[in-house]
Amino acid sequence: MAFIKHIIVACAVDSISAYTVRYAIELAQILKAKLTILHVVDTAKLRELIKIGLFKEYERKNIEQDLEREGKMFVERFQTIAKERGVDCDTIVMWGTVHKQVAQVVKDTGANLLVIGGDPGLCEAGQSSIGELILTEAPCPVLIVKKLKHDWMDRLL
Asked: Strands of 113-117's sheet, edge to edge?
């Protein structure tokens, strides 16, 4: 069995991801592994929102800036927490198709564990998720973290 030396946690900017990143921080601390917090701004989602008329094309630049700023603030906040806990941690915020970019970063960094959040609600509704696409592309083992009611992590959040 290989030792886990580098963990990547892929996250959005939401409560499931906050929980998942906290879990990854705890895991990296226990394993004394390097942690990379990765946020991919989903270009396909933005195109979809413009296509359905929720946003206009001329608003794209402002929306893109807002999304990138929000992603950076999210990962930097958790990077600070990780470093306070003694975890070697860096962050990446990038643009693209989420599952493709996540897989590429895992390959480029040589990470040997990918941590993602899972939403049981999507599965129950019969919807496919970005997580499923990540599973098909990931070149390493993937740990899916789902939030349980009254979990031990609740004390940390």
From this structure: 89-96, 34-42, 6-11, 113-117, 142-145
pLDDT in tens, 103-140: 999 999 999 999 998 865 544 444 557 778 888 888 89
What is the topology classification, in CATH, of domain 6-151?
Answer: Rossmann fold (3.40.50)
Amino acid at 141: P
Q: What is the pTM of this model?
A: 0.84
Q: What span, in angstroms and rounded, lies between the C-alpha atoms of 138 and 134?
A: 6
Indicate the domain borders of the chain: 6-151
Tell me the pLDDT tens digit for each residue of 53-62. 887 778 878 8
57-65, long-range: CB < 8 A, 24+ apart: none
CA angle 51, 57, 63 (to 5 degrees): 100
Give the separation between CA 139 and CA 9, rounded to whole angstroms: 14
- 36 DSSP assignment: E
DSSP 54: S
- What is the C-alpha separation between 3 and 24, in angstroms, rounded? 16
